[in-house]
Structure formats: C-alpha cells, structure tokens
Specification:
single chain, alpha/beta, Rossmann fold, 2 domains, 6-stranded parallel β-sheet, GPI inositol-deacylase, AB_hydrolase_fold
C-alpha cells in the first residue's frame, strides 16, 4: 500500500489548509503528486488565514513592518531587540525562563546570518538587498518562532489542541505514513509520535525540516523522554540550513537513540530567512528520500 504523506506545518500564520497542501506538494514536485494530508493548526493561533497561497506570512509582514522601522531608525541593537521581544512574551516569567537563552542565541545568530558573518560556511551567500531588510527578515522569524514556541510549551490547553490536530490526521490514515514536518511542527510531530498510542503506527520515514529539536532547551520540554526516535519510526531524516536560526543546533543524531535510524543533512535554503518550507522541500536529499519511500521517481 502506498504511504500517506502527513504534513505538519510550523510557525506563523498560513493560508487555508487546501492551499497549504497544494503549495507543499508543488514545492516537493513529485510526479505524480503524493496523497497528502495536512495537520493544520494555524487557526488555533491566528484569527484569519492568509489570503492566496503564501507560505510564510510572518516573513512578508516582518519585511513590510519591521523593514520600514529599521530603515527609519537604523538597526536596533540586538540587546534592545531581545528585551523588547521578551516583554512581548509576558516578560518570560519563571515558567518560561529557559526560552530567554534561546531568544538571545537566536537573535545573535540572526544578526550574524543577516551580516554574512565569517563564522558561516564558505559557500554561504548573503541575501541580496539592503542590510536593514535582511535584519528585518531574520528578526521577524525570531519573533514568530518565540511567540509560537512559548504558546506551545506554556499554554497546555493550546498545546493539546495543536497535538489533537496531528492525532486526528494520524488516526484517519490507513496503512503506512510518511510524516514531513517543518519548524515548530517538528516538535509537535515528535511529541505525538512519541505517545504510546502511536507505537504501533507504521511510519517508514519521518522528515524534519528547519527543526529546533537539537536545541537543549527545546529537548528539555519535549514529551519523548529520554530522547529517542519514536518507536513507530523506521528512519528519520533531519535537514537544516546552517544559517537557519530556528535550527540553532542542526543535528539530532548525537542525542536521539538509536542513532542508526537518524540522518542529519545540511542543505542550502535560499529563502529570505533561510527557513522557508518551499526551499527545504526542494532540497535534493529531501525530495529523493521522500520519493524513495513513496515510490516516486525523481
């Protein structure tokens, strides 16, 4: 039986479910297209879906709003940006204190990526255009990430509602399932697949793209403890761009057991903030690995 592909989207607002599935399928570009379902949870966080087929609303909004502010007043100091973002998250009270370290590291990594720091790989290409726009793109990503991560880890009712969306799609699947998740969606997918009720599910492949599952503070919060490949998963491909600030640690193989089920791949993601799902899905190793497991030529 041909596997069903289950997509789990990540941070930020999204277009309607059907449009989102279509754009992910188009980006993956397998022929014939796979039978895919989207575990859609954006409506739990955002009042109205994005119009059309745009993928990353936080990027567009961040460039439009944040870019103008940066242009007018110069690049805001990183420390001021971190403090302002922490306040927006309710001051990051004691229950959410671990996210302060992630926020600081993401902010400095974002500035380095926007500037083309010497610490980045030799083949890293700085996004073209004025620096304030590059900074705006990365900082919009940082804000969107922390707002949604904070909601997921520290609002248990909302977290359960988000996980229920993934559970419902998996419950409806018949036969094997290939799970493809992006950004915070990788954490949601990992949490759900780690639940005992899904231990008997047949998941020949889990693909995580731009995932924060390698970050210590995120690992401290996930449901699967000790860290392990979910028992239903036969193989796990984790792909990240070296400058993706959501994937501060782009590897999962060193921490998740058994390691021989895990593969880490550094890929090039040429979206405005190095985190775009379309660019991840188009990466050769991602397309080839998914194609192999769903019986498609590449």
């Amino acid at each position: 039986m041909e596997p069903t592909v289950v997509y789990v989207h990540g941070i930020g607002n999204k277009p309607r479910r059907e449009a989102l599935v279509a754009t992910w399928n188009t980006a993956l570009a397998l022929r014939p297209a796979v039978g895919a379902q989207m575990a859609y949870w954006a409506d739990l966080r955002y009042a109205s879906p994005l119009p059309g087929g745009g993928l990353e609303g936080f990027t567009d909004g961040g460039l439009a709003a944040g870019g103008g502010a940066l242009e007018a007043g110069g690049v805001e100091p990183t420390e001021a940006f971190v403090e302002k973002t922490a306040v927006e998250l309710g001051g990051l009270d004691a229950s959410a204190a671990p996210l302060k370290g992630v926020l600081e590291r993401m902010a400095y990594a974002a500035d380095a990526a926007a500037s083309g720091s010497d610490s980045l790989p030799d083949d890293f290409e700085v996004i073209p255009g004025p620096k304030f726009l590059r900074v705006a793109a990365f900082r919009a990503l940082v804000k969107a990430t922390l707002h949604d991560v904070h909601a997921y880890f520290f609002d248990q009712a909302q977290a359960e509602a988000i996980r229920d969306r993934v559970r419902a799609v998996l419950d409806d699947a018949h036969g094997p399932v290939v799970v493809v998740a992006h950004s915070l969606g990788t954490v949601v997918a990992y949490d759900v697949l780690s639940e005992p009720r899904f231990a008997g599910l047949d998941v020949p492949l889990l693909v995580t793209l731009g995932s924060p599952l390698g970050i210590q503070e995120i690992q401290d919060q996930v449901k699967g403890r000790p860290l392990a490949v979910p028992p239903s998963v036969g193989a796990w491909l984790n792909a990240a761009d070296a400058a993706d600030v959501v994937a501060l640690d782009p590897t999962i193989r060193p921490e998740y057991r058994p390691a021989d089920k895990c593969s880490d791949a550094l890929v090039v993601n040429r979206s405005a903030n190095r985190h775009g799902i379309a660019e991840y899905l188009a990466a050769d190793i991602v397309r080839r690995t998914i194609a192999k497991h769903v019986g498609r030529p590449v």
